[in-house]
Amino acid sequence: MVDRDLPERMQAAALDEFGGPEVITLRKLPIPQVADDEVLIKVWSAGVGVWDAYERQGVLVPEGSALPIVPGSDGAGTVVAAGSKVTGLAVGDLVYVSATTRPKGGCYAEYAAVQAQYAAKVPDGVAVEHAGAMPTDALTALAGLDALSLAAGDWLLIFGASGGQGHLAVQLAKRQGLNVIAVASGADGVALVTRLGAEISLDGHGDLTDVLARIREAAPNGVNAILAMAGGQTLDRLTEALVDGGVVGFAHGVRPEPGERPGVVVRAYDGESNPRQLQRLNELIEAGPFVVHVAETFPLGKVREAHQRLETSYVGKLLLTVA
């Protein structure tokens, strides 16, 4: 089914070469055609993540992509066309997308065609205007929690808890019945994770001896696992708070990677976008109000500024508004 009022061309932010933020330019491109297993989305907003910078640099280019490339694996909007083999989604549905494979371009555009398996209806509890910033980091946080295999009542330390993935992981962990110690960045980060329900909120920029003392006071028997969104010496020290045999989970891309050591199990994880994970994520989100904290919003015409902002410190996520 297709919305018959579609224009022939759309505004998009695209790149003809790889490099810095300056290679992204606005231009008019044809609206992509929809295959039998795809949906066409009128994009409202698109998340801006470090993976977009890698794509811009030519380091992480989606399979099948050809220049000019429209970045943007994360987005949200309204379905305006659906292929003949698509089930569960229909024209008019409000959806979010985490499209790891998108040879027809991403969500830095007024329209995006993606395989329906990468899309899900926006769940109750998520502010529609922020849904485009959520998908990849939320799915990655869910994969991280899966990798830890914790039980309700266990203690989890989230390192980097006020970042894009971290602040979503705090909320998903609470929904799984975990006790969360959130190590965040700065006073604004601590305030955010406290508001999101962490039992203990600590500033990772503070004195590590004091931080460890607070952790041991809260969990005298040790924390069962650490979910790490960053590596380095601070993480190495935090592992001192683990129980014997405790787990450190880290997303691929964290540098330096946590090293194996006696009494510590290290597991890497990656987010995965598929119908099962999207359904699980939605079920967890709909258990209560869910915050996608947007640090700053940019119109599509300011996409270069958004990519420059990626290189600075901020709490939560960055978002492009398209519609």
From TrEMBL:
Major subcellular site: cytoplasm
Compartment annotation: Cytoplasm
A Pfam family it matches: ADH_zinc_N
Ranges of residues in domain Enoyl reductase (ER): 19-320
Keyword terms of this UniProt record: Acetylation, Cytoplasm, NADP, RNA-binding
Keyword Acetylation: yes
CDD domains to which the protein is assigned, alphabetical: MDR_like_2
InterPro entries listed in its UniProt record: ADH-like_C (IPR013149), ADH-like_N (IPR013154), ER (IPR020843), GroES-like_sf (IPR011032), NAD(P)-bd_dom_sf (IPR036291), Quin_OxRdtase/zeta-crystal_CS (IPR002364), Zinc-ADH_QOR/CCCR (IPR051603)
Subunit structure, interactors included: Homotetramer.
Cross-referenced PANTHER family: QUINONE OXIDOREDUCTASE (PTHR44154:SF1)
Name the record gives this protein: NADP-dependent oxidoreductase
Species of origin: Micromonospora tarensis
